[in-house]
Amino acid sequence: MIQKKSLQWIAWVLIMPVLVLRGFTTIYPIVKTVLNSFFDIRILSGVNEFAGLSNYINIFKDQKVITTLKFTAIFVVVSMLFHIVFGIGLALILNMKFKGRRFLRTIVLIPWAMPSVVIGMAGKWAFNNDYGLINDFIRRFFPDFQLSWLINTGSARAAVIALDLWKDLPFFAILVLSGLQFISGDIYEAAKVDGADWFQSFFRITLPLIMRNVLTLCIPFTLWRLTSFDLVYSMTSGGPGEDTSLIAYRITMEAFTNLNVGYAAALAVLLFLVMGIFSWVNMRFMSRFEN
Amino acid sequence: MKKKMISILLMAAFVCSALIGCGNNGDSDQSSTDAVTNKGGNKEYDLTLYTVNSTDADFGDWLANVEGATGLKINVIAAPTDTDTRQQKITTILSTGDSSVDVLEINDEMSASFKNSGWLEGLNDTVMTEDIRGEFPQGYIEDMITDKNGQIVGVPGYSGYLAFWVNQEIMDEVGISAIETKEDFVEYMEAVSTDGRYGYGGSWEKTYAFNEMAQFVNMFGGDYLDWSNPANREAMEFLHEMVVKGYTSLDQIADKYEQMNSKFNDGKYGSLFMWGLGTDYAKAGMLGDDKIHMAMVPQFSEQKYIFTDSWSYVLNTASKNKDAAVKFLQYMASEEGMKASYEAFDRYPARKDVAEKVVPDTDPSKAIYSRYANECVVKGRPMLPQTMEFISAMGTIFQSYIKGEITIDDFCAKAQEYVETYN
């Protein structure tokens, strides 16, 4: 035992390179971001001075950020609700036995495999009133239909959420499908013998058994939504006005376009805290669910 | 004991290899740096150029020409193609006093941000001397690349205009031969705008709308940085009215140049303002005197106004190779240098006298560009140090005003507030 303890320093030395690397690539940026958030750093104006909490206070006075926070909340909640509802629905379809199932399972992942920036650029055209395939499709049923999706707040937000769903929903569904495949067919057979219909089987057997899987998936998928910026960057540039601006997009603009490093750092710290709180709540919820 | 010995030996081997690895890296870094700056004890390069043109197919020929003419050996660093990344990198180089880059190419947005920062060397006595200064577009020189002390800090690499483009097929169809005044413009709007077609098209996405807002303010004789000026208000009301009367489309709030040009090529717009020499129209087979072509800017007020833009070569204050850099910049400002850029990159010479000599009469842009230079008040775009924030903020309230969400009074008040905030 004593011998083992005396050799522990070797273990520390061996993992030291990883710790140093992690320190430089993760710990240092986090600490530096927190420090920067207390400074007014505007590179283009040559300003770099201590500002205390003013960056944090300004966040809640800045109309652009308030609009951004509102849309971020709408985007995350609505998108995640649809992910859960339609994701489970799609997973159930993909779990059915039919000809071409394997092919469908493969092609359904294509949107997810495409880069968000490409999808955003395609989305800008797809929702165009004159050239877009969305309106082209709708006009097959309603020939007089005219709507420029990206110029009004509501329709632009709906378009962004729809495109986000189109991209990531299949991946969510495939992951739910992996949970579905662990449910033994015997349980459904037994339920059928007991007279359970499809809805009863779904709500009493399927849903409870995949719920832990779905809740686990909700953590990364929600965090990805919170940090999503590329879709909006390439599709709407946050417009019309700031109506489709997401918090990660706002941070990117402040940090890398406007070069307001201090303010961007304060926004990043805020996002970091929100993500931390969300993860903690989700984990608590999961442990309660398990109990 | 045996295990302990093996562990210690392994540990020692690991530490040694790690140290050797670090040492080697350091050496190789050093040698690679040496390879860039020294060769056999002499400097291999006379200056380093940070350029946006290195991806052009003719860049190699251009570089050979410049090196041959100046006798300089130039180290080229390619600037990132992404606008934001490029601006960050250039800002970092200049703001940190990085001397590894001597000459950089910067656009108007960066000029506006950097010209009073002290990061760029004044060129009045060395490059932009009085004998050639008058040949450059004066409005551009004053608005974009002259600092608060009157020092010109850049050499414009070319002259581009925010030209007025018309569709000749549509003009012939409605029987209008020229659009010279505001009344002609309105008449053209009325005649063209019908059945999903608009007399005027734009790209009013919030970061793009700025060009047209400023152009119309100019045409009405206003001042984009003074929103108490009644001409500014008149210009904005005119644009709003164009939407209300159906002369231009509200849909263009979501459009960038790609969407706008597609619609122009498809005959949905009768006219617009656009940079460049019409590459997108040429690709669609729509460029030509009988199709889409440049026309003289209509006169709305006492004079005709037009914006010019450029990428300018600037000298980093921190440079340690200023003599070589000045030699390079002198060449870029000379007739030969501008000719080389025109031949390699199709960049229309910034100097009037050079354009007259170098650009052949067969170049379709020559006649109209000469008219722009001679008949219009040529200005640089009105920009502030916090350029991109200002552009985006103005675009946002413009969209709100055009959509009827705010009044013209609210718009002007906000616009003035932004001018003061971002200055």
Helical segment count of chain B: 18
Shape of chain A: globular
- Helix count from the secondary structure assignment of chain A: 14
Radius of gyration of chain A: 24 Å
Largest interface, counted by CB within 8 Å of the partner chain's CB: A-B, 35 and 39 residues
Oligomeric form: heterodimer
- Outline the biggest β-sheet of chain B: 5 strands, mixed
For the biggest sheet of chain A, the summary is: 2 strands, antiparallel
First-to-last CA distance of chain B: 73 Å
Strand content of chain A: under 5%
The largest sheet of chain B has its strands arranged as 4-3-5-12-6
Overall, the morphology of chain B is globular
Mean pLDDT of chain B: 89
Strand content of chain B: 5-15%
- Secondary-structure-derived class of chain B: alpha/beta
Strand order of the largest sheet of chain A: 1-2
**How many beta-strand elements of chain B?**
13
Q: What is the C-alpha radius of gyration of chain B, as a whole number of Å?
A: 26 Å
Helix content of chain A: over 70%
Uncertain parts of chain B: 14-42
